[in-house]
């Protein structure tokens, strides 16, 4: 048990970086508390309505506030099958605090979770640079701060959604995978199952990344029948079965109750409700029409795909744009409410910074192309690119998924710094540090402006 908790101990050389990261996270989360403290600490009969009415930060949902206030399987059970259960103990703590204080403390509990996950994401990423890639301290500091400075890393660290939790779990998995690859230690079956359940339970598609880790770490031993059965097929099957049970137990009865209540209401006021419903549909079509792409099929999971939205604009303005540098126009607006799918920057230098980061990333892939570890990281990255850019899952607001993949950029740059000619390395570190400082100031000032 000591070994489990030892990994969270801050080492001596990490203390100054940890202090800086903690201070920045405290400031950013303090802004959220200042804005939402008054409406969200109220004890009400309809928490969902209260949170939805007041909360608007890009496309993020305040479902965690709701779950912490009035527990239910509120998340999409087929995308986040265990997340509501992970929040059950924090919910019980909030119930106790409500009775003691007379206030709903969901906002504060969510902030603690957010800060913990974001803080240790930075710590484990720093350790990847130091212990796995074996970079110097200054290069590791610069690359860690670069990661923190990305727009939707900063935003993910202050919103009550699952992304910051996934970010911690994925970076931790990469750190542990890197250490095991260096020490030639396999993932044991129980370890693979544990990482899979934690990661896939938070966001189902990320569970595949744990299988990638096991494949890269264990090599051919991954395909042994015992490992495939116990570490891959069995946990995946059990989790999928749990999704079905969770839906039937918690979601389906509520859906039926809502439909029944709606049917009774419609029977009482049939004509007026029909007209209002038709009008609402027409308005929704007019509002969402230009923002929704054409799916591969309108049935099942494929209904979430998009084959018509421009990939070039989405990559430039959203994937490598908004994810890294927030747009000052429609700042942190919700694409499903009033933000256009594509927003352009006002100034040329935003595109220059985006180009510089893209070039550093591509150069890092080239200089690290012989590293098995880098290809593991890129397998994580490639999965998201296939889903979001290839199939178009969530492409209309692809930037909110930033925390799932953007760690690949500084990790690849780490291989550039390590393998570039010695005379250029200090300049590369200087460029990375300068971009990180710029992005912290640029994105930080926009976030402060939004919340104040």
Describe the structure.
- By secondary structure, the chain is an all-alpha fold.
- The protein is 69% helix and 0% strand.
- It contains 19 helices and no strands.
- The radius of gyration is 23 Å and the shape is globular.
- Distance between termini? 43 Å
Topology order in helix (H) and strand (E) letters: HHHHHHHHHHHHHHHHHHH
Give the overall shape, derived from the CA principal axes: globular
Strand percentage lies at under 5%
Output the radius of gyration: 23 Å
Percent helix, as a range, is 55-70%
Number of strands: 0
Poorly predicted spans: 284-290
Structural class: mainly alpha
How much is the average pLDDT?
Answer: 88
Helix run count: 19
Largest sheet: none
Architecture blueprint of SSEs:
Elements (H helix, E strand, L loop, with lengths): L1 H5 L8 H26 L6 H8 L8 H7 L13 H4 L1 H14 L4 H27 L4 H13 L1 H6 L6 H21 L5 H14 L4 H12 L6 H44 L1 H19 L22 H12 L25 H20 L4 H19 L17 H12 L2 H30 L1
Helix pairs in contact: 2-7, 2-19, 4-7, 7-8, 7-10, 8-18, 8-19, 10-11, 10-12, 11-12, 11-13, 12-17, 13-14, 16-18, 17-18, 18-19
Q: Would you kindly provide a brief summary of this structure?
A:
With 452 residues, the protein is mainly α. The protein has 19 helices and no strands.
Keywords:
452 residues, mainly alpha, 19 helices, 0% strand, globular
């Amino acid at each position: 048990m000591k070994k489990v908790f030892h990994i969270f101990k801050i080492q001596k050389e990490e203390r100054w970086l940890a202090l800086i990261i903690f201070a920045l996270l405290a400031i950013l989360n303090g802004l959220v508390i200042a804005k939402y403290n008054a409406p969200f600490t109220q004890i009400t009969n309809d928490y969902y309505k209260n949170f939805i009415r007041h909360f608007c930060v890009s496309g993020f949902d305040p479902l965690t506030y709701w779950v912490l206030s009035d527990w239910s399987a509120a998340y999409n059970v087929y995308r986040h099958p265990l997340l509501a259960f992970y929040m059950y103990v924090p919910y019980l703590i909030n119930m106790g605090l409500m009775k003691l204080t007379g206030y709903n403390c969901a906002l504060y509990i969510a902030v603690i979770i957010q800060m913990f996950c974001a803080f240790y994401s930075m710590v484990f990423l720093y350790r990847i640079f130091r212990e796995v890639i074996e970079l110097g301290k200054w290069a590791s500091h610069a690359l860690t701060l670069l990661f923190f400075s990305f727009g939707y890393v900063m935003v993910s660290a202050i919103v009550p959604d699952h992304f910051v939790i996934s970010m911690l779990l994925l970076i931790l998995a990469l750190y542990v995978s890197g250490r095991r690859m260096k020490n030639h230690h396999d993932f044991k079956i129980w370890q693979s199952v544990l990482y899979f359940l934690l990661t896939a339970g938070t966001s189902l598609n990320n569970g595949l990344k744990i299988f990638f880790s096991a494949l890269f770490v264990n090599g051919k031993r991954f395909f042994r029948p015992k490992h495939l059965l116990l570490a891959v097929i069995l946990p995946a099957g059990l989790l999928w079965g749990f999704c079905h049970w969770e839906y039937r137990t918690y979601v389906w009865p509520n859906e039926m109750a809502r439909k029944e209540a709606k049917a009774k209401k419609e029977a009482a006021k049939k004509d007026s409700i029909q007209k209002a419903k038709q009008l609402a549909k027409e308005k929704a079509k007019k509002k969402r029409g230009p923002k929704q792409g054409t799916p591969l099929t309108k049935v099942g999971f494929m209904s979430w795909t998009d084959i018509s939205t421009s990939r070039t604009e989405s990559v430039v303005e959203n994937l490598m744009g908004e994810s890294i540098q927030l747009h000052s126009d429609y700042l942190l607006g919700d694409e499903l409410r009033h933000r256009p799918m594509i927003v352009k920057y006002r100034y040329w230098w935003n595109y220059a910074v985006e180009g510089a980061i893209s070039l550093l990333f591509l150069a890092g892939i080239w200089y690290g192309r012989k590293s098995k570890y880098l290809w593991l990281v890129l397998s994580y990255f490639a999965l998201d690119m296939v889903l979001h850019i290839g199939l178009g899952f969530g492409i209309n607001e692809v930037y909110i998924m930033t925390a799932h993949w953007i760690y690949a950029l500084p990790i690849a740059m780490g291989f550039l710094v390590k393998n570039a000619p010695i005379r250029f390395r200090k300049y590369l570190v200087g460029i990375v540090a300068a971009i990180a400082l710029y992005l912290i100031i640029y994105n930080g000032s926009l976030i402060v402006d939004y919340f104040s």
